[in-house]
Amino acid sequence: SLSDRLGGVFDRLRGRGALTEADVRGAMREVRVALLEADVALPVAREFVDKVTEQAVGQNVLRSVTPGQQVVKIVNDALVEMLGSDNVGLDIDVTPPAVIMLVGLQGSGKTTTTAKLAKLLKGRERKKVMMASLDVNRPAAQEQLAVLGTQTEVATLPIVAGQQPVDIARRALQAAKLQGFDVLMLDTAGRLHVDQALMDEMKAVADIATPNEILLVVDALTGQDAVNVAKNFSEQVPLTGVILTRMDGDARGGAALSMRAVTGKPIKFAGMGEKLDAIEPFHPGRVAGRILGMGDVVSLVEKAAQSIEAEDAERMAAKLAKGQFDMNDLRAQLAQMRRMGGLGALAGMIPGMKKAQAAMASGAVDEKILLRMDAMIGSMTPKERAKPELINAKRKIRVAKGSGTTVQDVNKLLKMHLEMSTAMKRIKKMGGLKGMMAMLG
Ligand code: GDP
Ligand code: MG
């Protein structure tokens, strides 16, 4: 796996300080091979590797993971971010009918996906959906959609022989308006390869129908060719998103990265089979794992994340050993508590925090309170954060106003900070956190 190969590259590095450019470049050669093996298009792989190299150089090597594992974590995080860390749904909250148009090469799965999405919107979102096929090129294409309509119990526009796509689109729009449909889905004709006559037809339909979504449907097995497809389509029509089909096959996921890079649009769904409910929201994390070719990437990444927490805590402990604990430190602690559900690395060690931790565990303090504290600290000036004793009555009013809280809330926060920094000073007297932990056994 990639992590084994990176292990080899990094064997020499164990125990050294920061990731150097030479080390990272060596590792990135392996990453590049992994990306290409996963079918990421060459220019996209190259750009990605350059970007991640820049991020990785100079990062400190965590003591508890190998440099190879750490690079995998950096690469994984960058992949997830680039694939889109949050899932983006369909933009259909508009004055009805919302129009969704599907475009793509022939055989990419447009017609099947049209029916899958219609079924999803009808079932889960209780939308009244109509489908219309504008495919007058392939014989029986319109009948194919009608059959899918019967299977999914979704209305389809009646077929009128001899009509051209633009006229069908116009008729569909009118029918959807008159009959009160929420969503109109337009399934378009495919292309074997990008062909200007069909592109022009697609543009004309888009002009008439002014779709809320124009989704490019791409076969995930397209591999290296995905870039050309994406480029051509996104130059011709204003795409709003991408759907990758055949993710149930042996696709290695690389097309996802290529599509995202070339179109700049989110991947909204993944087709997972021929059945009409085989469609899922796109999961960047899973696809990143597939691209890196490792089943164990998740646990690896978790392990690295834990060590980062641990080293953060150590860095904090070093500050504390000097008896320093300002609002910035408190804010970092609050953020950690939020991430870890109250179990911040330091939380259990510090008397003031222990109370807060217990309160959180018992449900007496919820995330909202932590967020409110964060807002208050956010409303302080940098000077106030470094020296909270500056915060007088007038400043308290300003902070409360700025964070949508009350002066009472601000007082509570200041009291908590004071208790904690007093505890810190006590800890310092006992020989720092190390000394305290040694005492505890
Ligand atoms: P179109 O030409 O773009 O309209 O493509 P179709 O919707 O007619 O699909 C072509 C073929 O791909 C059909 O046999 C579909 O059943 C199949 N297909 C579509 N989506 C998927 C998918 O997500 N997974 C698998 N395994 N097959 C799919
Ligand atoms: Mg079709």
TrEMBL record:
Residues reported in the UniProt entry to bind GTP: 104-111, 187-191, 245-248
Family matches, as Gene3D superfamilies: P-loop containing nucleotide triphosphate hydrolases, Signal recognition particle SRP54, nucleotide-binding domain, Signal recognition particle, SRP54 subunit, M-domain
PROSITE patterns, per the entry: SRP54 (PS00300)
InterPro entries membership: AAA+_ATPase, P-loop_NTPase, Signal_recog_part_SRP54_M_sf, Signal_recog_particl_SRP54_hlx, Signal_recog_particle_SRP54_M, SRP, SRP54, SRP54_GTPase_dom
Record EC number: 3.6.5.4
NCBIfam families to which the protein is assigned, alphabetical: ffh (TIGR00959)
Function text: Involved in targeting and insertion of nascent membrane proteins into the cytoplasmic membrane. Binds to the hydrophobic signal sequence of the ribosome-nascent chain (RNC) as it emerges from the ribosomes. The SRP-RNC complex is then targeted to the cytoplasmic membrane where it interacts with the SRP receptor FtsY. Interaction with FtsY leads to the transfer of the RNC complex to the Sec translocase for insertion into the membrane, the hydrolysis of GTP by both Ffh and FtsY, and the dissociation of the SRP-FtsY complex into the individual components.
Name of the molecule in the record: Signal recognition particle protein
Organism: Sphingomonas floccifaciens
Gene name per UniProt: ffh
